[in-house]
Amino acid sequence: MQKINLKDKFSQFTDFWSPKVIGDLGDYQVKVAKFHNQFVWHHHDQEDEFFLVIEGRVAIHVKEKDSEQIYTLNAGEGIVVPRGVEHMPVAEETAHVLLLEPATTLNTGNVVNEKTVKNLKRL
């Protein structure tokens, strides 16, 4: 066991949309990532995701039936995106985000593109 200092973990990288593993909880991983600008629309067939904004603001765009819903998260706020829900995170300014999700979760879900990270770095 060792304590985790989030400020220290976020200071160790500068890239955006590339989650880093900072801990394991059984079959789940605790990850940190920096968000900036727009990600990609995607969903996860098997995994739920928990987003917790540590610093900044993130808008989680969600497609619900025939409409789009936007959930704006400020520092200290989080949201669970259930499996199968099409979503796209957007951060107008740099945001620091903690993620809790199964270890099998691919950051871009059902989409594979230049933002896909298959082998996550551990901090």
Automatic annotation (TrEMBL):
CDD domains: cupin_YdbB-like. Residues 38-99 form the Cupin type-2 domain. InterPro entries: Cupin_2, PKS_Associated_Protein, RmlC-like_jellyroll, RmlC_Cupin_sf. It comes from the Bacteria. It holds the Pfam family Cupin_2. This is Cupin domain-containing protein.
